[in-house]
Amino acid sequence: MATLSRLPVKMLGDLVSPRALERILQDAAQARGGSLDTIDPGMLEDILKKEVFKRLQLSVPAPLAKKRVSEVLNEIMKSTQERLLPNQLSSLLGLEEGARRFSLYFDWPETQRLRGVLSVARQEEKEGRDISALVQEGQNLIDTMDRRLQEGLVEQGQDLAELRATYVRVQGMGGKDVRRLDTLIGQIDEAQKQGTLLPGEVERARNLTFNLRKALESSVVQTVENPAVPTSATILDPDAQARVLALEQEHAAQQLASVEREFTALLQARPDLRERHEGLRALQTQAKLTEDVVSGWREALKTERDALLAQQREQFARLEAELSRVQAGADTRIALDSARHLLDSGSLATDELQELQAMHEALQAGVDARAQLELQRELLEIERSARNVPGASAELAPLLAEARARLAQGGSVDPATLWSVLERRMGAAAQEREDFDARADRVVQEYDTVRHLAGETTQRLGRLADTLRAQRRLGQLSAQARERYAQTLADAEALLAEAHAEYRAAQEVTSTFGQDALSGLLDVFDFEESTPPLASNPDPALAPPPPPPSGGSSPASIFDTLLSAPATPPTPAPVPVASAEPAETWTLEGGQIRQGAQTLSAQGMAALLAQATALGLHRLDMGDATHVWSARSTVPGEWRLGRAQNWTELDEQVGAWLDTGLP
Hints:
Elements (H helix, E strand, L loop, with lengths): L2 H10 L5 H14 L9 H16 L5 H20 L11 H9 L7 H18 L5 H39 L5 H19 L4 H20 L2 E4 L8 E4 L1 H25 L1 H6 L1 H15 L5 H33 L6 H15 L5 H16 L3 H18 L5 H17 L6 H36 L5 H18 L5 H35 L1 H8 L32 H9 L20 E6 L2 E4 L4 H15 L4 E5 L4 E8 L2 E7 L2 H14 L3
Antiparallel strand pairs: 1-2, 3-4, 3-7, 5-6, 6-7
Helix pairs in contact: 1-2, 1-4, 2-3, 3-4, 5-7, 6-7, 6-14, 7-8, 7-9, 7-19, 8-9, 9-10, 10-12, 10-13, 13-14, 13-15, 14-15, 15-16, 16-17, 16-18, 17-18, 18-19, 18-20, 19-20, 20-21, 20-23
């Protein structure tokens, strides 16, 4: 196929089967007195606007069909203007360059098949045969690997952002694990810049961050008095314990996802194992999955893979011997080379062996061997395409089994029926993708309205917004990339709701403490301008400290000018005993209340303390019209907050707890 006509097949292959698109283009070009080899941009544009647009409307709404056709036309125009349509497809240069690009990913089935295609194509070219079909297959493999690489880079970029955020939190712990994490982050960052995947390094960095975060959370203890024992004991703080459990669930979920990536080929080949794996995913959603369960499952899958690998090697040896008795064509040699390379590297070759088995059966069929082989290949193409379309594999599995059984008995099969089922699912997936993109755009736009809060929630939302931008730019999605896109959207939308709640709480604080006090906070403190002091308060116990001497101001000094009291609280004004009330306390983390009453004032203080964390502060003393407030932080992002009617009551009732965290 000519290079120009490849663009529609490449860009619209997720809506209509590539075979159907090729036929449409071929028939339309012939109707205009041309062919795919002689098609020009003007003719292709006309075909896209008429025949292809009409065909797309069978599976997707007209607006979406028009949008996708327009994208192809824009790409054709861009490629033509930049002269990006060379004739290198008539040679092997493009394939050899692609093979070098992806040589690191030797465990990918596409990499091994490309090696087989190159080997056979070189031999065919030496013998003077036409290699255009082989070059076309090689280019399709390169396109597939490029999409897989881009999806992997988006996921690796998201992992890198989370690793950096965790490193900031744990770097104060010191030690060899922290230094090792720093080194791994540097290696992953360099690989990301070069467009290279390092899954092993990412996995090791994840394990390190889990252990470091767990150690950090486990260091938070509280003292409890035991009447039966003359001394007090320390136990893990309940809030910290809850966070440790959440960390363990998060780590177990990451491990399960890693297992799924590692054993994808096995899970595709064994539906019974896939069903058991889905059972573990159900445990994950119920927060009942443990690392030990995942480790046991990984070992079980290794055993199953080794057994299946031995069976496939035996099957390959038998098929290779039987096919060697006949003159093998280019397709047979490619399938043999691909299967051999995969099995030798310890990878499963389920699809390749299925293709070889189909070739063997077709050769045994005699006179209709070529026609039967073509049908078997088309069925395999339908099966492969269905894997990346939600719901398609489950619906097509019995239909494909029935079609193969009919072929084995010498019956006829019409693949058009199967393609129609697949294309219907493709249309639904394309509309779902449109919905994903629209939701991603909304999250990114609304994130800009709350990004100035700069708390932990907003920082996490910012990282997810970056990931959504990258996922939004991806073209056709694999099943795994589509699932990750959906999960990122769900997480980002939940954080966006939290960020909006924090913003509303911050506005409540503004109304409580005065607009002048918080306008700078909500703008992340404009350090270039002077900041007005808090509104005056007639009660000297609540009066703010005087401004610092003139000179350069740091962020902390500006914040203290706004909200801090002197290190030694001023003598409080006499307070009638009748008005006394117990002091209130809260514990906060990442701008969220972990313990204490969920009042609007407390929520506003949570947002304010998130700003203080961003500025590196660890102590604040404040006052409003009726109460005084004091906050302490010993771990970045975590605060102890107390409130009373005056400084004396606050110090007597909760001062020790504020300073040490102990009752």
